[in-house]
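Bug #77: duplicate submission created two jobs. Keeping one. Sequence:
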Amino acid sequence: MFRALLILPLAILTLLAGCTSTGSSSFRDMSSAYRDVLESYANDNMLINIVRSSKNMPVSFLDMPSVVGTGNVSANAGLVANVYGNTPNSLGGFFAPYNAPFTSSYTPSVSMSVNSGFNFTQSSLDNSSFMKAFLSDIQPEIISNLTNNQIGPKSILYSLVIDSIELRDRNNVIVSKFFNNPYLPNYQLFQKALYTLIEAGLSTETVMQQQVMSAPMDAETLNKNMQALVAAFAQPGTQIVPIKNKNGTNAFQLVRMMPATRMCLIRQDGLKVLGQNFEQSAYCNTTTTGVEKSTSPAVASAAAIVNSKISDSKLVIKLRSTRNVFDFLGSLVDLQTKADPVIITVMNSDDIERNPALIDANEPRTPLFIIEKNKRDRNALASISYHGDNYTIPSQNNGYSNQVLVLLSQLLTLNKVPGSIPPSPSVLIK
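Kept job's structure:
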């Protein structure tokens, strides 16, 4: 009997250890489920606004800045004893056998309850701070950052963010212009122009430029204002440089060297593909010797679309805003959900670099973005209902839809400037 009494506490401790493991497992399950829900929440949020754009409706974004999680695990242990003695009202009689053999029993009891849940805060991004960045043109430094991430071929990124390609003569008159508008019947001309520029090394570079911070000053004015200029020198890159006035006299000016990112063509590739049709400002500031100056025969017909009959042409690339990127994707949805669907496809820029002749080849290409209407897919990347119709991004055979969603998510994140997300409680886990 005493051996049984010693074993019982050990059994109870073992059961309680199982309770602790159960509580830990429950918390991991909750965290994993929350991550899955948050991923679907973000994908659905982008999809609903793409569909809204396809209907020319206003877009509206929500964010989940905080999650408050609660979890409680309680356990109770007890011991139920049934002891039969000869004379229960006395200590000796209590332990004296009654109707031998001894029939007393001891039954441990353990109970556990787990309560858990999540409360989340949903904030609207319909405010001036977010919309100002959302409606502004995407800056070249953002293109540089997205290109360095190597999420997908550059042709995907450029197809999303470039609004138009212009060629201008020496007098700044537009000679040719190609719009990134899939509704246009000659949309393939824009794509050929884009692929040719990609073959010509379309890229970004960051250079240091002078930002003028004062009017020209002569030596006397400079000495008088030297004390006021001390504060300006606290900014990195600030300096005073000598200049020449219009009348030829010497003067001084306060300037600051600031980094600036621009889009340009790699000189070696650009001269090889396009010849000397562009002015020097179209090329990145990289010097290369022994560059072939003639147009490559492999891409001669494609390059003819971009080339101007006038030498020293200016290349102007206009970038979209993030709002216009949603409009572009909305147009793709509209085209492929019509009675006579049209699927916009793109070439892989890596394939173009390996074999430029593919620019003019009529080979199968990969769809840029795929959305299915009123088709059920349990494993869909995103699925929403809008005005009685169901729209899904399939998980299989969806072209470059995954890469498009990643790029779109990063563009939206960059638009969330300080102040665009309303304040909310921090994460609290009990």
